[in-house]
Amino acid sequence: MTEPSGRRERKKAATRQKIADTALRLFLERGYDEVGIRDIAAEADVAVTTVFSHFASKEALVFEQDSNFQESLRGAVERRSSAEALIPALRDEIQALVRHCTADSVAPVWRMIDGSPALREYEESMRLRHAESLAAAMAADPGLERTPTACRAIARFVVDAYSVAREAADPEAAVDEVFRMIEAAWAAASPAVSR
To answer: Which pTM was predicted?
Structure first.
């Protein structure tokens, strides 16, 4: 995440982080369904409207790093050098994200998400948004030479690799296994192969 430059931006970022931290603490202490937006606002010492100016929904408070995840995937496409292959760059990014989300300190959060139908549904819609964003970045790269359909399919596989690995007994091995299949699918989608 980029560091806010001005005083006002830093203050907004600090308020956003305070709200997110307060919400997560309350959710873990009391249970997600037992905490309302008013509870979060009161505990964070902000107005309810302030909470909603930073977060679109209660679910978004749990996934406050959502935009960072999406940016990191797009960045794996956009920041790589022309000599760097796409799929290994995406694998490395997913591997780093999986390492973060499977840390012991994050386990209570995932148990909370897994136990809440609303949070699971939000996570699913978030994954679809991430896949569409990644597909758009891939399709916009003239050096990749794949159809929009191929980019969308591979992007969904990449985002799903994160979910599959997060739930695996050996997350890093799961990323490697899934990415071998993604690499094969990417090669099969090459214009040279389809001729």
So the answer is: 0.83
